[in-house]
Amino acid sequence: MGGSFLPASYAAAAAALLLLSACGPEPSTGSSVVAAEDDAATPVPSEASSSLPRPELHPGMPGLLNDAELEALRQAREGGLRDIAGLPDFGFGETASPERIAAWDIDIGPDGEGLPPGSGSVERGETLYRLQCVQCHGARGEGSQFEALAGRVPGDRFPFSEDRRYPITVGSYWPYATTLFDYIRRAMPQAAPGSLPPDDVYALTAFILQLNGLLESGDSLDAESLPRIRMPARDRFVRDDRRGGPEVR
Ligand code: HEC
């Protein structure tokens, strides 16, 4: 899989918006020439360099956008780039096919939205874990080379801001069990992310939840049962609804 799966117009819009942001909220009025003359630090082009041919710009590139195109970009940016239908064609990138988009569209919501069919047992998860995870996360998820996956704070307290020595684990900190499926599927094992089929991910998720005392050893998980697991830290987070201002650091 390569890195250029963005729809053409999206990639172009993102690039153009970067340039737009650099120009400030208002479109450039052609003042860059004046600024260059005023700025003593700007090197004055020599005879030789000014006679070099100018690179050819695609007609849609920023600086050559007309007012309607600038307005379309500004609106798309305000809308969080969700609606890009009216944007001009910048002449680079390629349109992503539905299959390519689907391959990246694998996020799982807290309520289980997006979970694929399949299932896996704690028992099978333990076998898979021994084969593919144990060397980095320890036999019982206690951590070895890399982070611990198991462990609860007594009483399921949440003292992480008071004492940073408490281990942050799936069982002590994660508010949603579905995140575990999402994370393992997209990121683990570290050397082969994305390689595990859904049944294996359900099984590994089940085993890690069992290590955290949230499932029994005879249990299995699927798209129905996983979202029903209530994580100990579920109510420990608040939605951040701040919209800027001095309190946002
Ligand atoms: C080569 C070492 C390695 C292997 C093998 C590996 N992991 Fe990881 N794992 C990591 C590292 C490193 C991180 C932390 C990544 C980060 O924070 O960006 C991590 C993070 C995680 C986390 C998130 C922990 C947290 O609290 O943030 C989970 C869950 C996890 N791994 C599960 C697995 C599972 C399941 C397997 C086996 C299929 C596996 N890992 C195999 C190295 C590994």
Sequence-ordered SSE layout with sheet pairings:
Blueprint: H1 8-22, H2 32-38, H3 47-50, H4 67-78, H5 98-104, E1 119-121, H6 122-132, H7 134-137, H8 170-173, H9 178-187, H10 198-211, E2 220-222
Antiparallel strand pairs: 1-2
Helix pairs in contact: 6-10, 9-10
The protein binds heme C (HEC).
Structure description:
The protein is extended, with a radius of gyration of 26 Å. The protein is 35% helix and 2% strand. The protein contains 10 helices and 2 strands. It folds into 2 domains: 80 residues, no CATH class; 118 residues, Cytochrome c-like domain (Cytochrome Bc1 Complex, Chain D, domain 2, Orthogonal Bundle). The N terminus is likely disordered. A two-stranded antiparallel sheet has the order 1-2. It has 249 residues and is mainly alpha-helical. The protein starts with 7 loop residues before the first helix and ends in a 27-residue tail after the last strand. The structure holds heme C (HEC). The site of heme C (HEC) has 18 residues, from helix 7 and helix 9.
The CATH superfamily of the largest domain appears as Cytochrome c-like domain
**Share of helix, binned:** 25-40%
Q: State the major sheet.
A: 2 strands, antiparallel
CATH topology name of the largest domain, in short, is Cytochrome Bc1 Complex, Chain D, domain 2
Taking the alpha carbons of the first and last residues, their distance comes to: 36 Å
Bound small molecules, which ones? Answer: heme C
The chain-level structural class is mainly alpha
Radius of gyration: 26 Å
Strand order of the largest sheet: 1-2
CATH first level of the largest domain: Mainly Alpha
Count of individual helical segments: 10
> CATH architecture of the largest domain, please?
Orthogonal Bundle
Instruction: Compute the average pLDDT.
Output: 79
Q: Helix-strand pattern, N to C?
A: HHHHHEHHHHHE
Shape: extended
Which parts are unreliable, with pLDDT below 50 for 5 consecutive residues or more?
Answer: 1-48
How many structural domains in the coordinates?
2
* Share of residues in strands: under 5%
The tally of beta strands, per DSSP, is 2
